[in-house]
Amino acid sequence: LLVRGIVTIRFTQRSIILTMKLSTAFLLLATAAHGASAQSIRKPVNKAKILSLARRLEEAQGDDAANQQEEQQYEFLGDYSLKMIGCSSEQYQDPENGEYEYGSVVVRLCPSASCDDQGVGCSAGYGDYVVGINTFVEAWLRDKEDDMQDDANQGDDQWDMNEFAECREFEVDQDADEEDGGDEAEEVAYYVGPTCIDGSSIGVGFFSDYTCTTKPDGVSFEDISNGWSLPYEDGGLVTSYCESCAGYNDNGEYELGEMCTQMYEKASSKCEGKMETYSSNGKDDSGCDYITSSFPSTVAKSSSSVGMVILW
């Protein structure tokens, strides 16, 4: 019995030692498990980052696909030159935002190889487009910004031509104001902006309303500007030369011009039946009747093979 007791005691001591060892192991495992669970708590954050990155990559791929599709859609423009062939003072509504412009322009895309600075530019292989006058002038001035800056640096132009891209209020010269009626003259607002002249040219007009459609009665621009003459009052703000839709940028890369792509995007009416190369979306003839009826100044037959062309 005594031996058994000793054995039992020793066994009990070993049990105690084993229990302590097991307890220590359990604590280590618990600590490891806690660390693992802490890591597992962080895993959703990592997953979120991965998902976020995946979404960004997917969006980038989507943007690349959209850009590639857009490039393919406008690639045909590289074969053409743009030329303004007419204008109208009739009210025009932008099809995208519903805003009104008080005038419109017809531009023609002619094959670059045959575009002529004279007349309507070409009589075959062309497309005609209608855009708002402000939209056209703004895009044209932006395209010519570097040239205008060079002229300004050389002192050839005292006007900021970008101010004429839209109808805006003109700041009346105070000295002229006092000479022409003092406080009473100050209450009258005058405006300047692009306007169609004789259906064939775009100039800068002087107006008494914010839509740039009404001429002031008995007051000239010189009266309120201390004798300064309004530039391009007789036309010529925008040239009627052929402007290539593609060229080389400062890095020597061949690219489409923003003016042509913007005109194509903004056009509310398109007549592309005679074009030989055209958008991947196909030809758009939906605006042919509108162009013919809205710009009826002169419509003549150019040849039996071409049919009707718009002339001004």
Q: Which short descriptors sum up this protein?
A:
three-stranded antiparallel β-sheet, alpha+beta, five-stranded antiparallel β-sheet, disordered C terminus, 8 helices, 21% strand, globular, disordered N terminus, 312 residues
What secondary-structure arrangement, pairings included, does this model have?
Elements (H helix, E strand, L loop, with lengths): L1 H73 L5 E9 L3 E2 L6 E2 L2 E8 L15 E6 H11 L1 H9 L14 E3 L3 H6 L3 H4 L3 E8 L3 E7 L13 H4 L18 E2 L1 E3 L5 E3 L1 H9 L2 E3 L16 H7 L3 E6 L3 E5 L1
Antiparallel strand pairs: 1-4, 1-9, 2-3, 4-5, 5-12, 6-7, 7-8, 10-11, 13-14
Describe what you observe in this structure:
The chain has helices at residues 2-74, 133-143, 145-153, 174-179, 183-186, 221-224, 258-266, 288-294, and strands at residues 80-88, 92-93, 100-101, 104-111, 127-132, 168-170, 190-197, 201-207, 243-244, 246-248, 254-256, 269-271, 298-303, 307-311. The chain has 312 residues and is an alpha+beta fold. The strands form 5 sheets. A 5-stranded antiparallel β-sheet has the order 9-1-4-5-12, sandwiched between helices. A hairpin with a 6-residue loop joins strand 2 (92-93) and strand 3 (100-101). The longest helix has 73 residues, at 2-74.
